[in-house]
Amino acid sequence: MAAKILIAFYSRGGATEALARAxxxxxxxxxxxxxxxxxxxxxxxxxxxxAPGWAESAARMNALYEAPSETDAEWADAIIFGTPTRFGSxxxxxxxxxDGLGGLWFQGKLVGKAGSVFGATSTTHGGNESTLISLYNPxxxxxxxxxxxxxxxxxxxxxxxxxxxxAVVNGRDIKEPSADEMEVARFxxxxxxxxxxxxxxxx
Length: 203
What we know:
7-stranded mixed β-sheet, alpha/beta
């Protein structure tokens, strides 16, 4: 039976989206059934208008991906959260979705499922590791079995973090994740799918 993978992410410029798609590719290579979901904006149209391209990018992605729901999380054997860094921490858009999972938490519906994280930032040393580690806290509270990457694949010696796939994309000379960063993301999809399948059998 195929593992069911929810990839719930927020992306503004497309870097985190690209990592999400690469993770989905890796999961699909292991036979997973995948739901890609994008958290929605919390900022007002006036705030979005002050960042060139934000509204247009959001409209494009919202047309491609449904918003994540409680139903998606309950359906999944694994949940992989993705976020850009916001001052060294998770984006409020993704955090709002996580905060909305309280009903499932109360019922213990997510206990024993696999959980993993990934992210992107626009500056070198801009908070990828601190952001990913901060997401481990809600994973633990939800009862998810945290799946880090460690250095279990040669790709991790070139890019990413042992906590999850990551990218540094500044939108000027670096506009998308590198080939090495995308390979780490694909490995994450494969790894989480394998662990999710094993955990599903135990549940």
